[in-house]
Amino acid sequence: MIVLKKSPDQTGDRSENRRYARTKTSRTASLWSLDQRLITRASMVDMSAAGACLELASATALPSRFTIRLERSSGPDVRIIHCERVWQHEAMAGIRFCDGQSKATS
């Protein structure tokens, strides 16, 4: 007897072998070059402990390394995180957070 197993796309199961779980979010952010120039603004689509998926305001080519400034919905605090581009397709991009490089500022 031969048993055929459906692929994840056919069953609707989209579980992936990821190290960290992703959480949907709608945070806004600004992306800055390492020499403190604004690259573009973006919306976070989802986020994990290791990185995020971004929808950029425009299809601007991201540099390999940059910082992201996450704005808080309340208060003046901004979280600055050093990142690297993992992939980019037009206005969508996957980024990895670099370890030990984030800080909160006013």
Automatic annotation (TrEMBL):
Matches recorded under InterPro entries: PilZ_domain
Biased composition (Basic and acidic residues): 1-19
Gene Ontology molecular functions: cyclic-di-GMP binding
Signal sequence annotation: none
Region feature Disordered, mapped onto this chain: 1-22
Residue ranges of domain PilZ in the record: 16-100
Cited SUPFAM superfamilies: PilZ domain-like
Protein name: PilZ domain-containing protein
Phylogenetic classification of the source organism: Bacteria, Pseudomonadati, Pseudomonadota, Alphaproteobacteria, Hyphomonadales
